[in-house]
């Protein structure tokens, strides 16, 4: 019997650790690592995924089975990225499928090497890239679910194509797998839809951009600002106060929202 099994694997890098070490912010680092240990304990008790955290990296995996493992790992990647965003950390990673051994704190195999290389060489920005094998497996699972249950006709767009053609997990998609701090509010937008996810996300993004980013991370933060501005426009969300985009873009978008509100009132 071989050591490896076919698994979906997420390799996640928490950005900004080296800057915090140099700045002597050990308490914040310790808090983040302890939080990740708690998440690892939660998920191991549920028995759905294997989770290993070390230094500034996280590895999460699940058996591929009939493709459900791919969808599980993608959803948990959404969860972790949002979870760490709420703590003030940006993440970068990759999800692939392949041969992997993952038991407790021991994780090794070609799939881990593939995921690490994809994250370190191609992710570049605070995004979680997805291999074509993971995308294909996730699509097949959704198609099977749709065929088995006609009520299951759609799935939220959990993937996004970026400017360079890369596919990454859309962590700000409607109905994203989000931690508890994104669902504590009960306000609605007037149409009955809860605004908890929106309001929490806006708060955390505003907090991220409330301080000047490190010079070495300027491009990463600029990418995140463009990405989030696009999601605000797609969802008709208000803009976070500190979102660093040109003022003319803010003014143009605010005018578009104002016109839409007037049109809605007249209907």
Question: Tags for this entry?
Answer:
8 strands, Alpha-Beta Plaits, 2 domains, globular, 8 helices, 48% helix, 267 residues, six-stranded mixed β-sheet, two-stranded antiparallel ribbon, Guanylate cyclase domain-containing protein, single chain, alpha+beta
Descriptive overview:
The chain has 267 residues and is an alpha+beta fold. The chain has 2 domains: 165 residues, Nucleotide cyclase, GGDEF domain (Alpha-Beta Plaits); 83 residues, no CATH class. 48% of the residues lie in helices and 18% in strands. The chain is built from 8 helices and 8 strands; from the N terminus they run βααββαββαβαββααα. The strands form 2 sheets. Strands 1, 2, 3, 4, 5 and 6 form a 6-stranded mixed beta sheet that branches. A two-stranded antiparallel ribbon has the order 7-8. A hairpin with a 2-residue loop joins strand 2 and strand 3. The termini are far apart. The relative contact order is 0.12. The model has no long low-confidence stretch (mean pLDDT 86).
How would the blueprint of this fold be written?
Blueprint: E1 5-14, H1 17-22, H2 26-46, E2 50-54, E3 57-63, H3 68-86, E4 91-103, E5 106-108, H4 110-123, E6 128-130, H5 132-148, E7 159-161, E8 167-169, H6 196-208, H7 218-235, H8 247-266
Parallel strand pairs: 4-6
Antiparallel strand pairs: 1-3, 1-4, 2-3, 4-5, 7-8
């Amino acid at each position: 019997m071989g050591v490896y099994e076919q698994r979906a694997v997420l390799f996640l890098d928490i950005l900004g650790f080296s800057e915090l070490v140099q700045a002597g912010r050990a308490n914040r680092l310790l808090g983040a690592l302890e939080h990740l240990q708690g998440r690892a304990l939660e998920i191991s008790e549920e028995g759905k995924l294997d989770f290993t955290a070390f230094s500034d990296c996280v590895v999460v995996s699940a058996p591929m089975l009939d493709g459900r493992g791919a969808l599980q790992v993608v959803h948990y990647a959404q969860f972790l990225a949002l979870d760490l965003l709420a703590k003030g950390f940006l993440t970068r990673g990759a999800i692939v499928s392949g041969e992997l051994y993952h038991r407790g704190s021991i994780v090794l195999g070609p799939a881990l090497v593939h995921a690490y290389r994809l994250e370190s060489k191609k992710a570049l920005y605070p995004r979680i890239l997805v291999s074509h094998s993971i995308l294909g497996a996730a699509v097949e699972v959704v198609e099977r679910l749709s065929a088995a249950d006609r009520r299951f006709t759609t799935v939220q767009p959990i993937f996004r194509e970026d400017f360079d053609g890369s596919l990454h997990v859309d962590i700000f998609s409607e109905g994203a797998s989000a931690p508890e701090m994104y669902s504590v509010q009960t306000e609605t937008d007037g149409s009955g839809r809860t605004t908890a996810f929106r309001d929490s996300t806006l708060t955390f993004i505003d907090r991220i951009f409330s301080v000047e980013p490190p010079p070495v991370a300027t491009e990463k933060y600029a990418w995140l600002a463009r990405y989030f501005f696009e999601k605000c426009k797609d969802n008709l969300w208000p803009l976070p106060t500190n979102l660093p985009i040109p003022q003319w873009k803010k003014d143009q978008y605010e005018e578009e929202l104002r016109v839409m509100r007037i049109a809605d009132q007249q209907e």
